Amino acid sequence: MPKTFETFKSVALAEGFDEVLERVWAPDTVLEEHTHPFAVKAKVVQGEMWLTVGGETQHLKPGDLFELEHGAPHSERYGPEGATYWVARLN
């Protein structure tokens, strides 16, 4: 599992992802159900979040990985300290 952003980015680009960035979310942010026009592979690096896909909720903490398929309906909730994750997108 990549331990630095640069390593995460290198691995993701080698896997065929075309965009890699760091997302920082404010404390207690809630995003109602939505979709994205890209597939996602991400690693939580700080804070915590809850990701709900298909009625199943995952509690994600630093070191945890998650993936979303292109167009997958999902919702997100971030903890009292917010959260940061590295995300690779396949547009």
From TrEMBL:
Domain (Cupin type-2): residue spans on this chain: 26-75
Signal peptide: none
SUPFAM superfamilies: RmlC-like cupins
This protein's name: AraC-like ligand binding domain protein
Lineage summary: Bacteria, Pseudomonadati, Pseudomonadota, Betaproteobacteria, Burkholderiales
